[in-house]
Design brief:
Layout lengths: L1 H92 L12 H4 L5 E5 L2 E8 L9 H5 L3 H11 L2 E5 L13 H7 L8 E5 L23 H20 L24 H8 L14 E6 L1 H12 L4 E7 L9 H5 L2 H15 L1 H20 L14 H8 L7 H11 L16 E6 L7 H12 L8 E6 L6 H4 L1 H15 L2
Parallel strand pairs: 3-4, 3-5, 5-6, 6-7, 7-8
Antiparallel strand pairs: 1-2, 2-4
Helix pairs in contact: 1-11, 6-8, 11-13
Length: about 500
């Protein structure tokens, strides 16, 4: 009995255990079955939610991108477009130009060694170094009474170097070279004659407002070439006569240098046959022309028009075009529109003068801050250099002359026919020149090297480091290059 009861209790216990184990085993399945609908819903909703979140993120990214793009465009417009738009609009809104204050007659700004001469009716400021002037101060005493005679003989037989500065330059541009060039070029004659002059409208030379014939326009290449040859005649005539430094009244009493109202003077002088630069003197003198930047273009123009007056060329950082298409053919639509607008603005006296003043005075503020933009290293530009470049802007009517020069700029047409030059040419460049890049200078050199025939010597010197003004930044190396070249090829 007890055994039977024991077996029954064991069976019920086993059944209980079996049911419990079955329930335990089935619990995960029941849980899975119970949760299956919710998991299926989640799996169905998940992609849509992710897509919505992704779309919202993309929309935000596009919004941020658009905002950044608009901001960049606005900043670019303010930096690149707005300044020149203001340059072209504000002169129209500024009203009639008011007279400048604080300017002086050029004679009051002249240096002790300044000279003035009337050439083709224009009053030109220049400086001159004669052979023997570089000698020590005791030379006249040691030589005695024949000193003046020896100087005159040396001047008669000595060659001439004529120096032509670039845009916004003056005789100041050549201050570090003139004495040494006079001393070391042509040692057989005891040195050479060196002339540097202010090309209108720069420096202390007269700034005419009109001329009856276009070839007399001193701001164009043809008129500048005529002035160059005319000054060469004037200086060599004076040297043969033993003339001393010219005073403010020298040159025939022309109207005050830099003064207005001298428009008819060039034609009148040319008609009278005086100093017209025609090269018709009995024994026309020759010169080596040393041109810097835009002055190099004038030197080339002079050599092409008056080849018998030029014995050699030195082109320093030459701003000379070599592309036959010209600017107008290469410019895009925006550049053409800006150019046309600027030309139209300059053609009107009042707005044109306002435009010129705005451009120049902005440049003045940069120069005053030592940012000349012509040196390879401008961390410490001497104050005397800043003052020297700015002094011509204290002369009467610098703004009227600059307006005439702007109106005379030629941007179309063919480049000068360099292959027609039949004299030795030296090209000097600065590797870090930001105004006339080395590649542009090398194109000029390549065109010159394609010449052939007697006298067609082409040499080049690249100074490193050096910017746009080798005669100012690397004067010793520039001097050596010029002296060596002229003494070997041009005498």
């Amino acid at each position: 009995m007890r055994a039977h009861d024991t077996r029954q209790r064991a069976g019920r216990a086993a059944e209980s255990v079996t049911l419990t184990d079955a329930r335990t085993a089935a619990a995960p399945l029941q849980t899975a079955a119970a949760t299956a609908p919710s998991l299926s819903a989640a799996s169905a909703v998940g992609p849509a939610a992710a897509a919505a979140a992704s779309a919202a993120s993309a929309s935000a990214s596009r919004s941020d991108l658009n905002a950044a793009l608009v901001k960049a465009l606005v900043e670019q417009f303010q930096r690149e477009s707005l300044p020149w738009i203001q340059d072209l609009v504000e002169p129209l809104l500024a009203g009639p130009p008011q007279p400048l204050t604080g300017t002086s007659p050029p004679e009051q700004l002249a240096d002790p060694d300044s000279r003035f001469a009337t050439v083709s009716g224009l009053r030109l400021h220049y400086k001159l170094r004669q052979p023997g002037e570089w000698a020590d101060a005791s030379a006249p005493e040691r030589v005695g009474w024949r000193w003046a005679e020896l100087q005159r003989e040396a001047a008669e037989g000595a060659p001439t170097l004529l120096l032509l500065h670039g845009l916004n330059g003056s005789t100041f541009s050549w201050r570090l070279l003139m004495d040494d060039l006079a001393a070391y070029v042509s040692p057989l004659t005891g040195g050479c004659r060196v002339v540097a002059y202010d090309r209108p409208p720069y420096g202390l030379s007269q700034r005419p407002l009109g001329w009856p014939r276009e070839q007399d326009n001193p701001y164009g290449l043809e008129g500048a070439a005529r002035l160059t040859v005319g000054l060469l005649d004037e200086v060599t005539r004076g040297s043969r006569a033993g003339a001393g430094p010219a005073t403010a009244a020298a040159g025939g009493g022309a109207e005050a240098a830099g003064g207005r109202g001298g428009g008819a003077a060039p034609a009148a002088a040319a008609a009278a046959g005086g100093g017209g630069g025609s090269g018709q003197a009995a024994n026309p003198s020759r010169a080596v022309l040393v041109g810097h930047s835009a002055g190099a273009a004038v030197a080339v123009e002079t050599a092409l028009r008056y080849p018998d007056r030029v014995s050699g060329l030195v082109l320093v950082a030459p701003a000379i075009a070599t592309d036959s298409r010209g600017f107008l053919a290469r410019a895009d639509l925006g550049q053409l529109l800006r150019f046309a607008w600027t030309r139209s603005l300059l053609s009107a006296d009042g707005p044109g003068l306002n435009y010129v003043r705005r451009q120049v005075l902005r440049r003045v503020s940069e120069v005053e801050a030592g940012r000349l933009g012509v040196y390879s290293d401008e961390r410490e530009v001497p104050q005397e250099v800043i003052d020297g470049y700015l002094r011509p802007l204290r002369a009467h009517d610098w703004d009227y002359g600059t307006l005439q020069a702007y109106r005379s700029f030629q941007v179309g047409g063919s480049p000068p026919p360099l292959e027609r030059l039949r004299m030795p040419v030296l090209v000097v460049a600065g590797r870090q020149d930001g105004a006339v890049p080395l590649e542009a200078v090398q194109r000029v050199e390549a065109a010159l090297r394609r010449r052939s025939g007697p006298g067609c010597v082409t040499e080049s010197v690249v100074l490193d480091p050096c910017g746009h003004v080798p005669m100012d930044e690397r004067p010793l190396e520039t001097l050596q290059a010029i002296v060596d070249f002229v003494n070997r090829h041009c005498l």
